[in-house]
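Changelog note: in this version the structure field was regenerated for every chain. One regenerated record is shown below for reference.
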Amino acid sequence: MTRIYDRRLWKRQRLAQLEKEPLCRYCTKMGVITAATVVDHIKPHRGDERLAHDPNNLQSLCKPCHDVHADAKDKGKTMAGSDVDGFPLDPLHPWFS
């Protein structure tokens, strides 16, 4: 089985996402301008091809934000932090339910 991230489709989709959203989504919400270098899945795809390639499930992040967010997701938690208006950064935070 070919890994999703090794496929040409993902590589094209990743570049398209970074062109569409070149700044880190979380940093921007905090009022900081940082270039995005990682394309993150908002909801983990867990091998689901449809979810993995859903453009509405993608966000551009800088590596530090991605690593903190990914670590929280892996532990079943939400990412800490809030935007300049006080709303949680993590789109999966219970606040948004």
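Spot check on this record: Residues 8-20 form the longest helix (13 residues). The chain has a mean pLDDT of 90.
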